[in-house]
Amino acid sequence: MGCDSVFRRLVSHNPDLARLVDRGYAVAFDSNHLVVRDIPYLDNGGVLQRGALVAKLEFVDENRVRQTDHQVFFAGSSPHRLDGTPIPNLGGGPTTLILSDSCRDAVVQRSFSNKPVPAGAFEDFFAKIESYATIISGPATEKYGVSPLTRRVVIDDAEEPIFKFPDTLTTRAEIADLSARFAGDTVAVIGLGGTGSYVLDLLVKTPVREIRAFDHDTYCVHNAYRSPGRLDATELGKPKAEVYHGRYDNFRHHLRIERKYIDKETADQLDDVTFAFVCVDRGSARAAIFDALIARRIPFIDVGMGLKRKPAGLSGMVRVTYYSPENSAKVRDEGWAELQDSKDDLYRQNVQVAELNALNASLAVMKFKQLRGFYVDEDSVYHLLFDIADLKIAGATSTDEN
Description:
alpha+beta; Rossmann fold
């Protein structure tokens, strides 16, 4: 859905936004924000400048929005009165907000907080923008006869959005610049068993460019006990690829889930992949996948779980290992992951350990996000073990290597 259709959809479903357009404001939408350009104001030297008001959009549903509070952001320097003093009662202060490249001209420098009296809150976006525009532009209108009502419609040639619903989480948390670090990624999830299904669930909500997932098996009752989401009885016996595509297709674009194994015959499915998660439980299958990824210099994370039954209950480890393009062969040779089939692994007897699958997936996705700079990565741990018995985590870093 391009920017033009976003503009028309929001304006057609929200009367207050339509009123802003009809009034003549230069309205645009970017990164789940309302952007109103061409707001005239005076700088500290009495010179005419133009800035932009920016307000968060909180989506009620796919089409309707509401305000989060009475505050706005401002792209511009501090507005001044005719006598050269700053306009009073605007509150707020210096801040930054990262919008997309299509709004590179609107560089947010500060926030304003001017609560309307006596209501204490603005009725809608029209009332909010009218109030702030009047306060900020008043001196410039009086001195230069200018107006914020330029009737300019700014519809940028933006890329198709990743998600089919607005990403209000990123907007509310003001982390759009961090989320943008996934924009170039095509991520593969190989294996949609217990851990792989949770990896897929987490990645679907991450703004990577494309997700490709692969699993040849069918969806059975035991899968429902160690995978996210509800169980629909009609899903039983269907290919996992079909089941998970049905669950997530309405959430995001660029989602491919294939009923395939990945081995040397199908390795071309990994072309253009920038990162991969290996979530299989057979050592021989893992070995073939490793070969394909290492040959293509694709960085990847392999996950694993080893459980043993003791008189007191189950014990064992949850593992996450990162294989970089530079060191993947070396890390493989260290033997952290099984590359041969084992006959006595309790996990393959379908012990229901959904919480461990979810934890394994969460640790793996967190490591991927560390690699992309979304999370801080102080120690550069490439191999991580979580001990179920004492709930402790141990990790190996590159500095630990011989």
